[in-house]
Amino acid sequence: MSALWLKHYMPRSLYVRAALILVLPVVVVLLVVGIAFLQKHLEDVTAQMTRAASREVTLVTDVMEETETQQQALAAVRPDLQALDMKARFLAINEEPAIGRRRWYDFIAPQVEADLRALLPDLTAVALPSGQEARLYLQTDIGVLQLTFDRRRLSPVAPHQLIVTMVFFAVVMTTISFLYMRNQLRPITRLAEAAQAFGRGRVVPYSPGGAIEVRAAGSAFLDMRARIERQMEQRTMMLSGVSHDLRTPLTRLKLGLSMLPEEEAAPLQQDVDEMQLLLDAFLEFSRGAVEGASETVNPKVLLELIVKDARRAGYEAELISVEGEGKAMLRPTAIRRAVENLIGNAVRYGSRADVSLSITPKSLRIRVEDDGPGIPPEQRAEAVKPFSRLDPARNQNQGSGVGLGLAIVSDIARAHGGVVRLGKSESLGGLCADIIIGR
Hints:
- By secondary structure, the protein is α+β, with helices and mostly antiparallel strands.
- Among the domains are: 11-158, Beta-Lactamase, CATH 3.30.450; 291-438, Heat Shock Protein 90 (2-Layer Sandwich).
- Helix content is 54%, strand content 15%.
- It has helices at residues 14-64, 70-84, 109-119, 160-199, 212-258, 262-287, 299-312, 332-349, 380-383, 405-415, and strands at 87-90, 123-127, 133-140, 143-150, 295-297, 317-323, 328-330, 353-359, 363-370, 419-424, 431-438.
- Strands 6-8-9-11-10 form a five-stranded mixed β-sheet. The protein has a four-stranded antiparallel β-sheet with strand order 1-4-3-2. Strands 5-7 form a two-stranded antiparallel ribbon.
- A hairpin with a 5-residue loop joins strand 2 and strand 3.
- Helix 1 packs parallel to helix 3 (109-119).
- The radius of gyration is 43 Å and the shape is rod-shaped.
- The two termini are 35 Å apart.
- Residues 393-400 have low confidence and may be disordered.
């Protein structure tokens, strides 16, 4: 439970998570090694070198204390300066110490200056502008003395090179690891794309690749996809065959009933008509989600055509709003059947159907609202099941079906990787049916 809060800050992508797992150890190793080296090794070596340099500077200043003028002082320390490989001069009266700018990566310079100030009480300024030269400014009785000597006598040569080398090779190795990781994750990404496309009713070419485990998962997905396609095809063929076989005896029954007196044939004719209606609805349900191939369509244009056809059929339907724009991969025939079913239900149990469309970068929503009695919340889950008839919750005087209208819509939505959500219309007060499909 204590680690659950961390989930909100963790990346969701497998690629980013793998990259994080790869980069974090490298960064931690660099920090640990770098800090440990700087604090334990460089600091100790630098302290020893600055201590030795400060002794040499103290030797020069002690010799100068016995002189009275700057010229005498420089002459007195000339042998020592030659031996110590130093240069010395006194600043003019109005001359300021030339400090200069340090290099941004010279992280050891602050420690050098701090150690020198602690060891040399008369030190007024330290100039460490480059890796080749160091200038110390000391206050003496006869003026400000400038001592110049090699910077390498105060600290190790180019201490930043170790860090630069570590970072460089860390970047190189991390880049190589990223390339290798991308090649390993690419088959997983392809498998996810193929599974997502199949869940939305599209079949994209896919061949297993990658590591043994990924290949096994890919092969299992192909077997599963083939079985599902085979089952869907068999279901459609079976229902189509049953429908075709039943149409012949129904036709003979209608022909026989036409020869009977009207009073005797009327009840039987009603039963035959109901059987015909049930057969047609069952066949429509069997082919509703699989009819047609997926293609890139403009949902707005498709809905405009559906609403126009519904108005020509005498339905009170209208496309009231369209939010967003763009295209989506859909099965136009199946979507048309789903929207037509919703419009048909709306005008059957109400008087009008308001259709709206909302398109976002991630999804599209087709909404159909009516002014009928609606469906109670506790019965909405049951309403989308096949052969579920909720006539007590609807207006039976407007007609009834066989309980497959919303089931067909739900099946088509699932075939597109989406869902159907039922609710109450805020504007009309009746049923609000949403078809939500991911893009």
